[in-house]
Write a structure and sequence with these properties.
globular; Lysophospholipase L1-like esterase; 13 helices; five-stranded antiparallel sheet; alpha/beta; hydrolase activity, acting on ester bonds; Rossmann fold; signal; Ester_Hydrolysis_Enzymes
């Protein structure tokens, strides 16, 4: 019943925009992929040099990183440690892009989202069939006249931020920031003609802050982009969905890559593969084509960004099986190999997480050492921190920053 209600909410929301029917809204055809350039628009070495240069001058230059992924990313422990390592070395550029309202089972390492009950309806691309979701895959529908969200730093900080909302509005609405040390200030959310767009930023905001939406019907939020006011240092956005595969991006509104442009990513990380590996019926040719298309689209839209594929971590599916080959997910070796091949052919980076852990069935040893959880799929906080240290060293080596 809850699932049916969410689908109806999403259909009603989208149909608040002109020229839409409920059936078309929920069962819309898949977003048309962007045209793919056959020739790369920038060399790998050139992009790595640009990113390395920005990190070297990060005291006066912003460096933006966006990681897409599944539950390993949604926990923001792996990405959170990457953020901590980078920001401690190259400066704190802000919190990054986060969902608009709390997402059950998802956390942010440096931010807490709070809302009152019955103010918002959260709709997730994880379990809904539509192609109207925003960048990140979470859509927050107002249920009250003036719903609000409190943004709190997980650790006290004197830093001030520029905060923009990713939104969709049928007619002009407004957003107000107040509370804490902030004098009330407001920005308009101009009618967006059915498209997702970022609002003008609210400047010099300290946390905690209450963000209140004065919404007309047809206004919804897709997330917050929280940047440091100084416009320097590293911003690391973790866009994870529990249970997600790479194909979840097909549910995002066509042209979502234009919203990604607004984050000005210098490094884009794709950290999918665990859920694909657990699918014994995975169509490998289709998966390879999908990954190639996604990488090509990102290179087309962000030709100067470094792209990094993070392979799935090691995992065990059949605990009682006698051999490693029968204990591990059947599709895991092929998923890793496809990612490696696509990265090589597309001239982008690939980090083999499973190999870093020690190869097939190494997660059993990690679990014995307190680095992996009992499900033999996810890691403990210490395990994610250890993995992030490995990825951080790999990235710095590729950038020549050792």
């Amino acid at each position: 019943m809850r699932r049916a209600h969410n689908i109806l909410v999403l259909a009603a929301l989208i149909c608040a925009l002109p020229g839409c029917s409920p059936v078309a809204a929920v069962n819309a055809p898949a977003a048309r992929p962007l045209a793919v350039q056959q020739k790369a628009t920038g060399s790998r070495d050139g992009n790595l040099a640009v990113l390395a240069g920005k990190l070297r001058t990060s005291s006066r230059t912003p460096v933006n990183i966006v990681q897409f992924g599944d539950s390993h990313t949604a926990a923001d422990l792996f990405s959170g440690e990457m953020r901590r390592l980078l920001q401690s070395q190259y400066g704190d550029g802000g919190i990054g892009f986060v969902a608009a309202t709390p997402v059950p089972g998802t956390r942010y390492d440096n931010l807490i989202l709070k809302t009152a009950r019955r103010q918002w309806e959260l709709v997730s691309a994880r379990n809904q069939q539509s192609t109207q979701f925003p960048l990140g895959g979470y859509l927050s529908v107002p249920l009250a006249a003036n719903p609000s969200v409190r943004l709190e730093a997980r650790e006290p900080s004197a830093q001030r931020y520029r905060i923009s909302a990713l939104y969709q509005a049928r007619e002009n609405s407004s957003l107000t920031a107040r509370g804490g040390q902030n004098a009330a200030r407001r920005v308009m959310l101009a009618a967006s003609n059915g498209q997702w767009r970022f609002s003008p930023p609210l400047n010099s905001i300290s946390l905690p802050v209450d963000m209140s939406l004065n919404a007309h019907p047809g206004t919804v939020l897709g997330g917050w982009y929280i940047q440091g006011q100084k416009n320097a240092g590293v911003t690391y956005s973790a866009l994870g969905i529990n249970g997600a595969r790479l194909e979840v991006q097909d549910k995002w509104q066509a042209g979502w890559q234009e919203n990604l442009k607004a984050l000005r990513p210098d490094l884009i990380i794709l950290a999918y593969g665990t859920n694909e590996a657990f699918d014994n019926t995975l169509d490998m040719a289709k998966y390879r084509d999908q990954l190639r298309r996604t990488v090509a689209q990102l290179k087309r839209v962000q030709p100067r960004a470094v792209i990094l594929l993070v392979g799935p971590s090691d995992s065990i599916k059949q605990r009682g099986a006698r051999t490693c080959a029968t204990r591990r997910p059947q599709s895991l070796p092929q998923v890793v190999q496809i990612q490696r091949q696509v990265a090589r052919q597309a001239n982008v980076l690939f980090w083999d997480w499973q190999a870093y852990m020690g190869g097939e069935c190494s997660i059993a040893r990690w679990q014995a050492e307190g680095l992996a959880r009992g499900d033999l799929v996810h890691l403990t906080a210490d395990g994610y921190r250890k993995s992030a240290s490995g990825l951080y060293d790999y990235l710095r080596g590729q950038l020549g920053l050792r």
